[in-house]
Amino acid sequence: xxxxxxxxxxxxxxxxxxxxxxxxxxxxxxxxxxxxxxxxxxxxxxxxxxxxxxxxxxxxxxxxxxxxxxxxxxxxxxxxxxxxxxxxxxxxxxxxxxxxxxxxxxxxxxxxxxxxx
Length: 117
Fold this sequence. Notes:
Blueprint: H1 13-57, H2 62-68, E1 76-82, E2 86-94, E3 106-114
Antiparallel strand pairs: 1-2, 2-3
Helix pairs in contact: 1-2
């Protein structure tokens, strides 16, 4: 008579299939986290650009305000470009990577504010 649990050769098959699928699940999870980091860095670059432009339009410390406007674990830098009536500030934020050996570059955003005379 045959055992109801199946033959001895089939034992552990589900565990082996799971282990084979685990790298795919990890790759999808890392890709989702990396996509979130890219979006977050771009959002923070926009915040830094607006804050830097606001400070530059008031002739204040735009570089310090730009750096303080982003999360402490991100690095932001701002470069102003003045004209007669306005200032345009471009911010740059390095995009962190959770995947070793692969860089994702930087996020750049620009904001323009009228000069306060």
